[in-house]
Amino acid sequence: MGLTLYQKMRDAHEVRRFKDGSSLIYIDRIMLHERTGSIALSNMIDEGRGIMAPEMVFSTIDHIVDTRPGRPGGTRMPGGQVFIDEMRRTTGELGLRLFGTDDARQGIVHVIAPEQGIALPGITMVCPDSHTCTLGGVGALAWGIGSTDCEHALATRTLRIASHRQMRIRLEGVRPGWLTAKDIIIHLICRFGAGFGAGHVIEFAGPVVEGMEVEERLTLCNMGVEFAAFTALVAPDRKTLDYVRGRAFAPRAEDVPEAEVQWMALASDADAVFDRDIAVDVSGIAPTVSWGTSPEHATPVDGLLPGEPGLEAAYRYVGLEPGTPILGQPIDGAFIGSCTNSRLSDLRRAADLLRGRMVPASVRAVCAPGSTAVKRAAEAEGLDAIFRDAGFEWHEAGCAFCFYAGGETFAPGARVVSSTNRNFEGRQGPGVRTHIASPETVAWSAVNGRISDVREVLL
Ligand SMILES: CC(C)[C@H](C(=O)O)[C@@H](O)C(=O)O
Ligand code: SF4
């Protein structure tokens, strides 16, 4: 019987298989950020434990640090400075790499991992952060862990994982030019339900995935955890190899040929058995936005809001009515950023829609590039000027606007179209109503001052 991509990667890293089917897995690389990583590292120091392979640990400061231009206050999160200070102290004491706020490699952990070549095809990676699944987009077996597991991984370079079920989602059909990976993943979560991936590893495959750029695959895998999956993956291909080559922590030039042969062999066998094998035709998928308080509360942008029972609390929070259109809903805010959609390709596509246009004064629009490197690259090609001229605030790299670190937010009750991945109550701040969507939908809605259909301009 053939093996799935996931099974091959697991087997290649398996130190031991237990009777219950779980496995002890060798961990290649570990990433940390100040919100959770600082806690794991202080515990390690307090317990007198050493780090098994310090050179394989990569840390950054992204979550609670302000993204305001210049970051004048460090962080506005009450009590937040201690996480930043602890991250600096503990990484210093333990001799770990830290991409701090003064480092050109700083950024949202899941954005810098592929960007710096830390995430690579075929490696195992963990980080105490749920969106570590993003890295499946480059063919890494990567998943989010809790603090205790993080300490275990730091101390032993291994982790025990359960035996996961296998799901493949094959994306087929003709993808319209305006249809983004974000629309597709929100559509899938809405169609199958936010719990559909529970207990599974999801492999995204099929011609539409093969046609996607690597940064789009990162967006697709990013929301694997919003599908409740253990993680998500895309098999590496030529595009992945081109993407990875030459990045700072990728293999050295002389090792590349051998590595690439190994990476290209990473694919599910033709006779691999999946517990669920689903084909989805993307041809009919519309630009998709969330309306409620779960990513599964979503709708085609030109659809009417659903009226099933059980959605009352969500409707109350968002201040909308079943049976009404989402299209045309006036908005107060627009946000482009987060580990889902803040890479250079996202900013370019949004800028294309903003060029020569202006966001109305009633809308507060913010862009926080995913990393300092993305920010600088965007500035080098003049994207910052396009965003600013359109009325967007141009921020530093970080998470703060995505998850309300405690400071940066929109006004209570504000309706915000956002390129992020979560929309539960208060996610972007007290009372803020988040509609998750593609960066294109965010940009186009921002200039119109209402939730808008990108097909008006991109068809
Ligand atoms: C703070 C962190 C642990 C959290 C996560 O794990 O996802 C954050 O990144 C988020 O998106 O809510
Ligand atoms: S950008 Fe948002 S979703 Fe991503 S890691 Fe940061 S807080 Fe979590």
- Find the CATH topology of the largest domain: Aconitase, domain 3
* CATH-assigned homologous superfamily of the largest domain: Aconitase, domain 3
Strand order of the largest sheet: 5-4-3-6-7
CATH class assignment of the largest domain: Alpha Beta
For the biggest sheet, the summary is: 5 strands, parallel
Question: Structural class, from secondary structure content?
Answer: alpha/beta
Count of helices?
Answer: 17
Helical content, roughly? 25-40%
Small ligands present: 3-isopropylmalic acid, iron/sulfur cluster
Count of DSSP strands: 19
- Low-pLDDT windows of residues: none
From the spread of the alpha carbons, the general shape counts as globular
Label the CATH architecture of the largest domain: 2-Layer Sandwich
Which strand-content bin applies to the residues?
15-25%
| End-to-end distance | 45 Å
Number of folding domains? Answer: 3
Domain Aconitase/3-isopropylmalate dehydratase large subunit alpha/beta/alpha: 9-449
GO molecular function: 3-isopropylmalate dehydratase activity; 4 iron, 4 sulfur cluster binding; metal ion binding
Cofactor: [4Fe-4S] cluster
Pfam families: Aconitase (PF00330)
